Amino acid sequence: xxxxxxxxxxxxxxxxxxxxxxxxxxxxxxxxxxxxxxxxxxxxxxxxxxxxxxxxxxxxxxxxxxxxxxxxxxxxxxxxxxxxxxxxxxxxxxxxxxxxxxxxxxxxxxxxxxxxxxxxxxxxxxxxxxxxxxxxxxxxxxxxxxxxxxxxxxxxxxxxxxxxxxxxxxxxxxxxxxxxxxxxxxxxxxxxxxxxxxxxx
Length: 201
What we know:
Layout: H1 6-11, H2 14-26, H3 28-81, H4 87-93, H5 95-102, E1 108-114, E2 124-133, E3 136-146, H6 148-165, E4 170-178, H7 180-189, E5 191-195
């Protein structure tokens, strides 16, 4: 008879096996005890198998949720680019992306008067989203497509903000489609760009 444990099987002598089988035949209590142990092992194996299947299902569910989230973001970017979604609706829809990336939800809109025309070349009111976190001021722009002009604009807004507030801010653009030229200029001007849609691992 096979015990289910190779180490136990190898340790039993021929005589011990005969005694074991005889005990199973003659000792009712012993027989039920052994049967109970074998049944317990079977149940334990089944539980382990179920847990493993559950873990695989949860992993698939997590991947599916990530794909659905990325698909939703991409559709919003495309809709905005083709004029289906207004700028205000797009920005509102992207608030949760900012929250995911920065771990916060409270981003305030800050308006500055640029009398010298530092940002746009003429006197104007300049608006930017600002987050103050751990004493760090972060200027945030959300764009469906990020160009070199967007990077340069945020850089100039950062200069104006520093002049007005006396604080050098961190500059962050969260974008859908990102031009290669924008990436190069952002690196040069120390502007961080993060994609709206997460790249697959």
